Task: structure prediction
Amino acid sequence: METKFETLFFNRVNQQYKPVKLDNLLAQHLLITGVTGSGKSTTALSIMMGMKAFHQNLIILDPTGEYQSIPNSRRVVLGRDSFLDVNHLNANEIGKMLDITHPQLLSKLPLAIESLQISRNVLKSTAVYKKIDRTRDNHQFNLKRLRIANKDFDLNLIADQLIEEFVIPRNDDKADFTLLGQQYDQDTIQSVWSDLETLRLALRSLKVTELPEDSSDNHIVHYDVGYLINLFVTHRASEQSLIIDLSEYANDIHLSQTLIDILTREVMINRQRFPKKFPVVVFIDEAHRYLPKVIASDNGIFSILREGRKIGVDLMLSTQSPLDLSAKLIGQFGSFICHRLGSPEEVDVLPPALQKSRLELMALPVGEAFLKTANSSDVTLVQITPASVEHNTNNISFDI
Ligand SMILES: Nc1ncnc2c1ncn2[C@@H]1O[C@H](COP(=O)(O)OP(=O)(O)OP(=O)(O)O)[C@@H](O)[C@H]1O
Ligand SMILES: [Mg+2]
Result:
Protein backbone atom coordinates (compact mmCIF):
# COMPACT_ATOMS: atom_id res chain seq x y z
CA MET A 1 0.00 0.00 0.00
CA GLU A 2 1.37 3.38 -0.92
CA THR A 3 1.13 5.74 1.97
CA LYS A 4 -0.26 8.91 0.58
CA PHE A 5 -2.34 11.69 2.10
CA GLU A 6 -5.24 12.02 -0.33
CA THR A 7 -7.50 14.65 1.21
CA LEU A 8 -5.29 16.49 3.66
CA PHE A 9 -4.05 19.27 1.40
CA PHE A 10 -6.52 21.13 -0.80
CA ASN A 11 -4.78 22.95 -3.62
CA ARG A 12 -6.24 26.47 -3.57
CA VAL A 13 -5.13 27.21 -7.10
CA ASN A 14 -6.51 24.28 -9.06
CA GLN A 15 -9.24 23.61 -6.47
CA GLN A 16 -8.38 19.91 -6.13
CA TYR A 17 -6.90 17.81 -3.38
CA LYS A 18 -3.17 17.39 -3.76
CA PRO A 19 -2.03 13.84 -2.97
CA VAL A 20 1.17 13.96 -0.89
CA LYS A 21 3.28 10.93 -0.08
CA LEU A 22 4.00 10.45 3.57
CA ASP A 23 7.63 9.79 2.71
CA ASN A 24 8.02 13.03 0.82
CA LEU A 25 6.48 14.97 3.64
CA LEU A 26 8.42 13.46 6.51
CA ALA A 27 11.51 11.62 5.40
CA GLN A 28 13.65 14.74 5.43
CA HIS A 29 12.07 16.31 8.49
CA LEU A 30 9.14 18.70 8.38
CA LEU A 31 9.05 22.27 9.67
CA ILE A 32 5.64 23.80 10.32
CA THR A 33 5.84 27.51 10.87
CA GLY A 34 3.52 30.50 11.17
CA VAL A 35 2.46 33.24 13.57
CA THR A 36 0.36 32.38 16.59
CA GLY A 37 -3.14 31.27 15.65
CA SER A 38 -2.25 30.66 12.01
CA GLY A 39 -3.04 26.93 12.25
CA LYS A 40 0.22 25.10 13.04
CA SER A 41 -1.10 22.79 15.76
CA THR A 42 -4.22 22.02 13.74
CA THR A 43 -2.07 21.10 10.75
CA ALA A 44 0.24 18.98 12.89
CA LEU A 45 -2.72 17.16 14.38
CA SER A 46 -4.20 16.43 10.93
CA ILE A 47 -0.87 15.03 9.77
CA MET A 48 -0.52 12.90 12.90
CA MET A 49 -4.02 11.51 12.61
CA GLY A 50 -3.28 10.68 8.97
CA MET A 51 -0.02 9.02 9.96
CA LYS A 52 -1.77 6.76 12.41
CA ALA A 53 -3.99 5.58 9.58
CA PHE A 54 -0.73 4.42 7.97
CA HIS A 55 0.33 2.68 11.21
CA GLN A 56 3.26 4.96 11.68
CA ASN A 57 5.08 5.03 15.01
CA LEU A 58 4.66 8.44 16.56
CA ILE A 59 6.08 10.10 19.66
CA ILE A 60 4.69 13.48 20.66
CA LEU A 61 6.65 15.62 23.07
CA ASP A 62 3.96 17.94 24.31
CA PRO A 63 5.41 20.81 26.33
CA THR A 64 2.09 22.42 27.21
CA GLY A 65 -0.37 19.54 27.55
CA GLU A 66 -2.17 20.56 24.37
CA TYR A 67 -2.58 17.07 22.91
CA GLN A 68 -4.91 15.35 25.32
CA SER A 69 -7.61 14.03 23.08
CA ILE A 70 -5.71 11.99 20.52
CA PRO A 71 -7.41 8.62 20.30
CA ASN A 72 -5.42 5.42 20.85
CA SER A 73 -2.53 7.12 22.53
CA ARG A 74 -0.48 6.22 25.54
CA ARG A 75 -0.26 9.56 27.25
CA VAL A 76 1.94 10.07 30.28
CA VAL A 77 2.46 13.21 32.31
CA LEU A 78 6.05 13.53 33.40
CA GLY A 79 6.29 14.28 37.10
CA ARG A 80 2.75 13.01 37.73
CA ASP A 81 2.32 9.48 36.48
CA SER A 82 5.78 8.99 35.01
CA PHE A 83 9.36 9.76 35.85
CA LEU A 84 12.79 9.98 34.31
CA ASP A 85 15.26 7.43 35.61
CA VAL A 86 18.42 9.44 36.31
CA ASN A 87 20.46 6.27 36.25
CA HIS A 88 20.13 6.33 32.46
CA LEU A 89 21.58 9.79 32.23
CA ASN A 90 25.20 10.73 31.84
CA ALA A 91 26.94 13.36 33.95
CA ASN A 92 26.54 15.92 31.19
CA GLU A 93 22.76 15.44 31.11
CA ILE A 94 22.49 15.54 34.88
CA GLY A 95 24.55 18.72 34.90
CA LYS A 96 22.19 20.27 32.37
CA MET A 97 19.09 19.12 34.17
CA LEU A 98 20.27 20.62 37.44
CA ASP A 99 21.61 23.70 35.66
CA ILE A 100 25.11 23.25 37.08
CA THR A 101 27.33 25.77 35.32
CA HIS A 102 30.31 26.33 37.62
CA PRO A 103 33.31 24.74 35.85
CA GLN A 104 34.73 23.36 39.10
CA LEU A 105 31.44 21.63 39.92
CA LEU A 106 30.98 20.39 36.38
CA SER A 107 34.43 18.86 36.32
CA LYS A 108 33.80 17.01 39.59
CA LEU A 109 30.29 15.88 38.68
CA PRO A 110 31.24 12.58 36.97
CA LEU A 111 33.39 11.68 39.99
CA ALA A 112 30.64 12.59 42.43
CA ILE A 113 28.19 10.35 40.56
CA GLU A 114 30.70 7.51 40.56
CA SER A 115 31.23 7.99 44.31
CA LEU A 116 27.50 7.82 44.99
CA GLN A 117 27.29 4.68 42.87
CA ILE A 118 30.02 3.10 45.00
CA SER A 119 28.33 4.21 48.19
CA ARG A 120 25.01 2.64 47.34
CA ASN A 121 26.01 -0.46 45.40
CA VAL A 122 29.39 -1.44 46.79
CA LEU A 123 29.28 -0.20 50.36
CA LYS A 124 25.48 -0.55 50.67
CA SER A 125 25.39 2.83 52.38
CA THR A 126 22.80 5.57 52.22
CA ALA A 127 25.37 8.27 52.98
CA VAL A 128 27.91 10.15 50.87
CA TYR A 129 31.22 8.47 49.98
CA LYS A 130 33.96 9.99 52.12
CA LYS A 131 37.19 10.49 50.23
CA ILE A 132 39.15 12.14 53.01
CA ASP A 133 41.85 9.79 54.41
CA ARG A 134 40.77 7.02 52.06
CA THR A 135 43.68 5.20 50.46
CA ARG A 136 44.02 5.11 46.71
CA ASP A 137 44.23 1.32 46.93
CA ASN A 138 40.94 1.08 48.76
CA HIS A 139 39.31 3.39 46.22
CA GLN A 140 40.65 1.34 43.32
CA PHE A 141 39.28 -1.79 44.96
CA ASN A 142 35.83 -0.18 45.27
CA LEU A 143 35.94 0.98 41.67
CA LYS A 144 36.70 -2.57 40.56
CA ARG A 145 33.72 -3.88 42.49
CA LEU A 146 31.52 -1.14 41.02
CA ARG A 147 32.28 -2.43 37.52
CA ILE A 148 30.10 -5.46 38.10
CA ALA A 149 27.58 -3.79 40.40
CA ASN A 150 24.45 -1.74 39.71
CA LYS A 151 25.03 1.89 38.85
CA ASP A 152 22.03 3.49 40.49
CA PHE A 153 22.61 6.28 42.95
CA ASP A 154 20.86 8.80 45.15
CA LEU A 155 20.76 12.07 43.23
CA ASN A 156 19.56 13.90 46.33
CA LEU A 157 23.04 13.52 47.81
CA ILE A 158 24.84 15.05 44.86
CA ALA A 159 25.51 18.48 46.44
CA ASP A 160 26.95 16.89 49.60
CA GLN A 161 28.99 14.44 47.56
CA LEU A 162 30.45 17.23 45.45
CA ILE A 163 31.97 18.69 48.63
CA GLU A 164 33.60 15.33 49.37
CA GLU A 165 35.28 15.47 45.96
CA PHE A 166 37.25 18.58 46.90
CA VAL A 167 39.93 16.97 49.02
CA ILE A 168 43.66 17.65 48.80
CA PRO A 169 46.84 16.45 50.56
CA ARG A 170 48.26 18.41 53.49
CA ASN A 171 50.70 21.07 52.43
CA ASP A 172 53.39 20.20 54.97
CA ASP A 173 55.73 17.29 55.54
CA LYS A 174 52.80 15.14 56.70
CA ALA A 175 51.44 15.05 53.17
CA ASP A 176 50.52 11.49 52.24
CA PHE A 177 50.07 10.95 48.54
CA THR A 178 48.82 7.41 48.95
CA LEU A 179 45.55 8.95 50.20
CA LEU A 180 42.87 10.53 48.01
CA GLY A 181 43.14 13.57 50.25
CA GLN A 182 43.70 14.63 53.83
CA GLN A 183 41.86 17.89 54.09
CA TYR A 184 39.08 19.76 52.38
CA ASP A 185 40.11 22.25 49.73
CA GLN A 186 38.50 25.12 51.63
CA ASP A 187 39.24 27.81 49.05
CA THR A 188 37.58 25.93 46.23
CA ILE A 189 34.63 24.86 48.36
CA GLN A 190 34.11 28.50 49.33
CA SER A 191 34.24 29.58 45.72
CA VAL A 192 31.54 27.09 44.68
CA TRP A 193 29.42 27.49 47.80
CA SER A 194 26.69 29.70 46.39
CA ASP A 195 26.42 27.42 43.35
CA LEU A 196 26.04 24.48 45.71
CA GLU A 197 23.22 26.27 47.50
CA THR A 198 21.49 26.87 44.17
CA LEU A 199 21.97 23.22 43.36
CA ARG A 200 20.34 22.18 46.63
CA LEU A 201 17.39 24.37 45.75
CA ALA A 202 17.15 22.82 42.29
CA LEU A 203 17.22 19.35 43.84
CA ARG A 204 14.40 20.22 46.19
CA SER A 205 12.14 21.50 43.44
CA LEU A 206 12.99 18.73 40.99
CA LYS A 207 10.27 16.17 40.73
CA VAL A 208 11.11 14.75 37.34
CA THR A 209 13.13 11.93 38.68
CA GLU A 210 11.17 10.80 41.66
CA LEU A 211 7.92 9.02 41.90
CA PRO A 212 5.17 11.32 43.05
CA GLU A 213 4.21 11.17 46.71
CA ASP A 214 1.19 9.02 46.07
CA SER A 215 3.30 6.36 44.40
CA SER A 216 2.14 3.86 46.99
CA ASP A 217 -1.32 4.23 45.52
CA ASN A 218 -1.46 1.14 43.38
CA HIS A 219 -4.26 2.50 41.24
CA ILE A 220 -1.76 4.80 39.57
CA VAL A 221 0.81 3.13 37.35
CA HIS A 222 4.12 4.92 37.22
CA TYR A 223 6.08 4.74 34.02
CA ASP A 224 9.72 5.25 33.36
CA VAL A 225 9.61 7.49 30.27
CA GLY A 226 12.99 6.16 29.13
CA TYR A 227 11.48 2.68 29.05
CA LEU A 228 8.42 3.88 27.12
CA ILE A 229 10.58 5.65 24.56
CA ASN A 230 12.66 2.53 24.13
CA LEU A 231 9.49 0.53 23.59
CA PHE A 232 8.11 2.95 21.00
CA VAL A 233 11.28 3.25 18.94
CA THR A 234 12.06 -0.46 18.88
CA HIS A 235 8.60 -2.00 18.47
CA ARG A 236 5.94 -1.31 15.93
CA ALA A 237 3.14 0.52 17.69
CA SER A 238 0.59 0.43 14.95
CA GLU A 239 -2.34 1.33 17.15
CA GLN A 240 -0.93 3.72 19.67
CA SER A 241 1.05 6.92 19.77
CA LEU A 242 3.14 7.93 22.74
CA ILE A 243 2.45 11.36 24.16
CA ILE A 244 4.82 12.66 26.79
CA ASP A 245 3.18 15.62 28.44
CA LEU A 246 5.74 17.99 29.95
CA SER A 247 3.27 20.61 31.10
CA GLU A 248 4.25 20.22 34.77
CA TYR A 249 7.44 22.06 33.81
CA ALA A 250 5.90 24.56 31.39
CA ASN A 251 6.98 27.48 33.57
CA ASP A 252 10.57 26.35 33.81
CA ILE A 253 11.93 26.96 30.34
CA HIS A 254 15.42 25.77 31.16
CA LEU A 255 14.20 22.48 32.57
CA SER A 256 11.77 21.98 29.67
CA GLN A 257 14.61 22.58 27.22
CA THR A 258 16.79 20.09 29.01
CA LEU A 259 14.04 17.48 29.21
CA ILE A 260 13.30 17.75 25.50
CA ASP A 261 17.02 17.55 24.84
CA ILE A 262 17.33 14.42 26.99
CA LEU A 263 14.20 12.73 25.62
CA THR A 264 15.12 13.35 21.98
CA ARG A 265 18.60 12.04 22.68
CA GLU A 266 17.04 8.99 24.31
CA VAL A 267 15.13 8.36 21.05
CA MET A 268 18.38 8.49 19.08
CA ILE A 269 20.39 6.36 21.48
CA ASN A 270 17.76 3.62 21.68
CA ARG A 271 17.34 3.58 17.97
CA GLN A 272 21.08 3.46 17.31
CA ARG A 273 21.40 0.59 19.73
CA PHE A 274 18.52 -1.38 18.22
CA PRO A 275 18.27 -0.46 14.54
CA LYS A 276 14.84 -1.14 13.07
CA LYS A 277 13.34 -1.02 9.62
CA PHE A 278 10.20 0.91 10.44
CA PRO A 279 10.35 4.69 10.80
CA VAL A 280 9.51 6.70 13.90
CA VAL A 281 8.26 10.27 13.82
CA VAL A 282 8.92 12.62 16.71
CA PHE A 283 6.74 15.72 16.92
CA ILE A 284 7.60 18.76 19.03
CA ASP A 285 5.09 21.59 19.08
CA GLU A 286 6.09 25.15 19.90
CA ALA A 287 9.74 24.32 19.49
CA HIS A 288 10.69 28.00 19.65
CA ARG A 289 10.34 27.78 23.38
CA TYR A 290 12.56 24.77 23.72
CA LEU A 291 15.50 25.43 21.49
CA PRO A 292 18.39 26.89 23.41
CA LYS A 293 19.98 30.03 21.95
CA VAL A 294 23.23 28.22 21.42
CA ILE A 295 22.76 24.67 20.20
CA ALA A 296 25.38 22.24 21.46
CA SER A 297 26.52 19.68 18.93
CA ASP A 298 25.12 16.89 21.09
CA ASN A 299 21.70 18.56 21.42
CA GLY A 300 19.01 15.91 20.92
CA ILE A 301 16.87 17.87 18.45
CA PHE A 302 19.94 18.75 16.42
CA SER A 303 21.18 15.19 16.38
CA ILE A 304 17.80 13.92 15.09
CA LEU A 305 17.92 16.58 12.39
CA ARG A 306 21.44 15.67 11.39
CA GLU A 307 21.52 11.92 11.82
CA GLY A 308 17.93 10.79 12.33
CA ARG A 309 17.26 10.00 8.69
CA LYS A 310 19.97 7.36 8.60
CA ILE A 311 18.24 5.41 11.34
CA GLY A 312 14.65 6.15 10.40
CA VAL A 313 13.88 8.88 12.92
CA ASP A 314 12.02 11.82 11.40
CA LEU A 315 11.32 15.06 13.14
CA MET A 316 8.27 17.21 12.77
CA LEU A 317 8.72 20.56 14.43
CA SER A 318 6.42 23.52 14.75
CA THR A 319 7.63 26.99 15.55
CA GLN A 320 6.16 30.49 15.35
CA SER A 321 8.97 32.01 13.38
CA PRO A 322 11.68 30.49 11.19
CA LEU A 323 13.98 33.03 12.86
CA ASP A 324 13.76 30.91 16.02
CA LEU A 325 15.96 28.38 14.27
CA SER A 326 19.52 28.96 13.21
CA ALA A 327 20.33 28.69 9.51
CA LYS A 328 22.21 25.51 10.41
CA LEU A 329 18.99 23.94 11.70
CA ILE A 330 16.72 25.21 8.93
CA GLY A 331 19.11 23.71 6.39
CA GLN A 332 18.35 20.25 7.76
CA PHE A 333 14.64 20.40 6.87
CA GLY A 334 13.47 19.04 3.53
CA SER A 335 9.75 19.82 3.89
CA PHE A 336 8.01 23.02 4.93
CA ILE A 337 4.46 23.99 5.71
CA CYS A 338 4.42 27.75 6.06
CA HIS A 339 1.34 29.35 7.48
CA ARG A 340 1.12 33.12 7.71
CA LEU A 341 4.38 34.80 8.63
CA GLY A 342 4.72 38.18 10.28
CA SER A 343 7.68 39.82 8.60
CA PRO A 344 9.80 39.73 5.42
CA GLU A 345 12.86 38.81 7.53
CA GLU A 346 11.16 35.56 8.46
CA VAL A 347 10.57 34.72 4.82
CA ASP A 348 14.21 35.49 3.98
CA VAL A 349 15.54 32.53 5.94
CA LEU A 350 13.30 30.01 4.16
CA PRO A 351 14.40 28.07 1.07
CA PRO A 352 14.39 30.22 -2.11
CA ALA A 353 11.37 28.40 -3.56
CA LEU A 354 9.23 29.68 -0.69
CA GLN A 355 10.63 33.19 -0.82
CA LYS A 356 8.98 33.69 -4.21
CA SER A 357 5.62 33.81 -2.41
CA ARG A 358 6.79 36.44 0.08
CA LEU A 359 3.78 38.76 -0.02
CA GLU A 360 1.21 35.97 -0.12
CA LEU A 361 2.94 34.28 2.80
CA MET A 362 2.39 37.34 4.94
CA ALA A 363 -1.32 37.51 4.13
CA LEU A 364 -2.47 33.89 4.41
CA PRO A 365 -5.80 33.17 6.12
CA VAL A 366 -5.93 30.71 9.05
CA GLY A 367 -5.54 27.10 7.93
CA GLU A 368 -3.85 27.94 4.62
CA ALA A 369 -0.18 27.45 3.96
CA PHE A 370 2.51 27.11 1.36
CA LEU A 371 3.68 23.54 1.12
CA LYS A 372 7.07 22.40 -0.09
CA THR A 373 8.03 18.77 0.16
CA ALA A 374 11.42 17.13 0.05
CA ASN A 375 12.96 16.31 -3.34
CA SER A 376 10.91 18.97 -5.07
CA SER A 377 11.19 22.70 -5.41
CA ASP A 378 7.47 23.03 -6.16
CA VAL A 379 5.56 25.18 -3.76
CA THR A 380 1.79 24.80 -3.52
CA LEU A 381 -0.77 27.00 -1.83
CA VAL A 382 -2.90 24.61 0.20
CA GLN A 383 -5.74 24.64 2.68
CA ILE A 384 -5.33 22.02 5.37
CA THR A 385 -8.26 19.79 6.24
CA PRO A 386 -8.58 19.73 10.03
CA ALA A 387 -8.79 16.34 11.73
CA SER A 388 -12.00 15.39 13.43
CA VAL A 389 -10.38 15.39 16.90
CA GLU A 390 -9.40 18.63 18.50
CA HIS A 391 -6.35 19.77 20.38
CA ASN A 392 -6.78 22.16 23.26
CA THR A 393 -5.61 25.61 22.37
CA ASN A 394 -4.68 27.89 25.19
CA ASN A 395 -7.67 30.12 24.69
CA ILE A 396 -9.60 30.22 27.92
CA SER A 397 -13.33 30.54 27.60
CA PHE A 398 -15.34 32.23 30.33
CA ASP A 399 -18.83 31.32 31.42
CA ILE A 400 -20.54 34.58 32.07
N1 LIG B 1 -7.03 24.21 8.68
C1 LIG B 1 -7.92 24.83 9.48
N2 LIG B 1 -9.21 24.90 9.14
C2 LIG B 1 -10.10 25.51 9.94
N3 LIG B 1 -9.77 26.12 11.11
C3 LIG B 1 -8.51 26.12 11.49
C4 LIG B 1 -7.50 25.47 10.69
N4 LIG B 1 -6.32 25.61 11.30
C5 LIG B 1 -6.57 26.29 12.43
N5 LIG B 1 -7.85 26.59 12.56
C6 LIG B 1 -8.46 27.29 13.70
O1 LIG B 1 -7.64 28.39 14.09
C7 LIG B 1 -7.38 28.41 15.49
C8 LIG B 1 -5.89 28.43 15.78
O2 LIG B 1 -5.28 27.28 15.27
P1 LIG B 1 -4.02 26.58 15.93
O3 LIG B 1 -4.21 26.41 17.37
O4 LIG B 1 -3.77 25.38 15.10
O5 LIG B 1 -2.92 27.68 15.67
P2 LIG B 1 -1.37 27.68 16.06
O6 LIG B 1 -0.65 28.22 14.89
O7 LIG B 1 -0.98 26.37 16.57
O8 LIG B 1 -1.32 28.77 17.22
P3 LIG B 1 -0.29 28.89 18.47
O9 LIG B 1 1.00 29.37 17.89
O10 LIG B 1 -0.93 29.94 19.31
O11 LIG B 1 -0.21 27.55 19.10
C9 LIG B 1 -8.07 27.18 16.05
O12 LIG B 1 -9.22 27.58 16.76
C10 LIG B 1 -8.46 26.33 14.88
O13 LIG B 1 -9.72 25.73 15.04
MG1 LIG C 1 -0.20 25.72 18.45
